[in-house]
């Protein structure tokens, strides 16, 4: 049986990363580079491919950080992934950046329950809750863009929950008591393509791959971009 080969890349936040799964072997690059995604992502992709000794055409699929995150960052990631997928003739797998951070908290801290929150600017956060199922972080409820105070007013979660993401840095006071016991995971403050790989493998096995033209970003805050256009509400 051929080894599963999945390339993952993410530019949705301040971090820029690429990772490659070849069977059980993993190759990864990660850097916090807020304004250099377009310069760094393709060299990172080439670096992991070279390290593994394979070509784009050898891949089974390409996973990308579909968002939420910065509009520009998400668009860069989707565009690069589509271009690579068209060139290699392989399908795409969109992976949530919030889920990737939750998976990172599991990898770094052994977390089984995680609240992921990204600073969405404009006094809001992107937030989601995740529970570990068979080694994979699965969304509990839905991902939202909302004010931190709205999250803080929700019923207190029981037990121990890990917190991951820049939302907990920006709104530390307001988000400090979401659960009976809350433990920060600084190592998962930003998503990493490395942590997208287990999620991508599960998505691949579930038949969730799509053609490049079907790949779509997840902004959660679509209305903001529409309102910038005359006559759009």
Automatic annotation (TrEMBL):
The record's Gene3D superfamilies line, in alphabetical order, gives:
3.30.420.40
Query: Which InterPro entries does the record associate with it?
Result: ATPase_NBD, Gcp-like_dom, T6A_TsaB
Q: Which residues form the Gcp-like domain?
A: 31-152
Alphabetized, the UniProt keywords read: Acyltransferase, Transferase
SUPFAM superfamilies assigned: Actin-like ATPase domain
Gene Ontology MF terms in the entry: tRNA N(6)-L-threonylcarbamoyladenine synthase activity
Q: Does the keyword Protein transport apply?
A: no
On whether Transferase is a keyword of this UniProt record, the answer is yes
Which Pfam families does UniProt cross-reference here? TsaD
Q: Belongs to which family? A: Belongs to the KAE1 / TsaD family. TsaB subfamily.
Full protein name: tRNA threonylcarbamoyladenosine biosynthesis protein TsaB
